[in-house]
Design goal:
Helix content: 25-40%
Structural class: alpha/beta
Order of helices and strands: HEHEHEHEHHEEHE
Enzyme class: oxidoreductase
Distance between the termini: 35 Å
CATH topology of the largest domain: Aldehyde Dehydrogenase, Chain A, domain 2
CATH architecture of the largest domain: 3-Layer(aba) Sandwich
Catalytic activity: an aldehyde + NAD(+) + H2O = a carboxylate + NADH + 2 H(+)
Largest sheet: 5 strands, mixed
Family: Belongs to the aldehyde dehydrogenase family.
Organism: Oleoguttula mirabilis
Pfam families: Aldedh
Strand order of the largest sheet: 3-4-7-6-5
Shape: globular
Length: about 220
Amino acid sequence: MAAPLAAGNTVIVKPSEQAPLSCLRLAEILSDVFSPGVLSVLPGGVECGKALSTHPLSCADPLKPTLLELEGKNALIACPDADIDKLVVGVAGGMNFTWPGQSCGSTSRVFLHKSIPDAVLKKVVEYVKRVYKAGVPTDFLTTMGPVISKAAHDRIMSYIKSAKQEGANLVCGGKAPEGIDGIKGGYFIELTIFSEVKLHIRIAKEEIFGPVIAVLK
């Protein structure tokens, strides 16, 4: 946001309607700094984003250049000379499992060169199970919280179901965590990793916005 503002542009920030408070507070703080309309915060879901990005009056009529920063299916690409230990940490860390995968910058697709052994996935699973522990967010031992809502939970689970149906191999996760006090009935989903993912299936193409990694070779 700082760079386009510093370059003299106007900025519209579209946070989720379910978690808009930080962005709205920032806009409130900056309201005395910028002229009206320079920085706008417009919370909303799919309909809001669609209106912003497709309505012809948003850019065509006044002939102003428009840049959309979208992200969504970021890829981590592992080349043949990748350091395996660093790769394991990168795959886990890039996914932002702490807020479980609910980040536009999460590397939800992992492209492994065919020369990299499949055993690396076993190391990834061991690492994430050791480092990330689902639990109540107010507990200091918790390292991964729930997804934001029932709608998000159900959407993510539908992607997991479709991945199984479309032939992806479930390496780990895919269900609610078990045996953890205080989270029963919450919107928790285990860290989920699929291998043998093909480019044409849904989890390879659509943003899941949850703790699901698709591994391709």
